[in-house]
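Researcher: Next entry in the queue.
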Amino acid sequence: MSILQMFSWPFMQRALIAGVLVSLCAALLGVSLVLKRYSMIGDGLSHVSFGALAIAVALGVTPLYFSIPVVILAAFLLLRVANHPRWNSDAAIAAMSASSLAVGILVISRTTGMTTDVDSYMFGSVLAMSRTDVALSVILSIAVLALFVLFYHKLFAVTFDESFSRATGLKTERYNTLLAVLTALTIVLGMRMMGAMLISSLIIFPALTAMRLFRSFRGVILCAAVTSVVCFCAGLTVSFTLSTPVGASVVCANLALFLVSCLLAAVRR
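Model: Structure for this entry, 269 residues:
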């Protein structure tokens, strides 16, 4: 089956539109998160999102509408803990991650059980994306991209030298909070496609790959964006062709490109 025939299916069209936008958001935010050593926040938020989705399914409310405010609140709390001198940020993220996952599993076990719908939230599914999900993903993804571009220079300053930025009068806490909120939105939007267990890799891998090939912040940003979109499209194609889980296929594509970038960096040295 040709690529054109493959994307003639409505569910593949929805997956492509939502996946490309979420991949772009994840790649752009991932560079700042990795450079600031906040990459584990993405993993913690993905587990929080799963717990929120499980509660939403149990209550019979729309999962995305319920999860977005919960994950944004969790992102804000994790950021406060990460910046607090008397807390161990890694331990706090691990505790919240494990607790949210445990709550989600307990709620599911007492209500619906491990149904196909819950499985799609954990590991991702191209069939899980409805028209409403895609519409919401498009709107929020465009908002995330617009805010990132609008505050690009401020986020750049906070990423590389937060202390100097604070000394110059920049409201660093405000932009750290913005980064956390945008990350929370991206994780919730991408979880239907990638799954709660794998969405954080969409944030980390493109940034790591780009850092092996480029040195400037702008170069890394652009390379990460291209890498993320290419790997998503490749993973989606492999998933449809071989009937493999889309989340795992995208992660493997990112892993393969990361290994190639490591080889190229070693040859260059």
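Model: The two ends are 42 Å apart (CA to CA).
Researcher: Noted, moving on.
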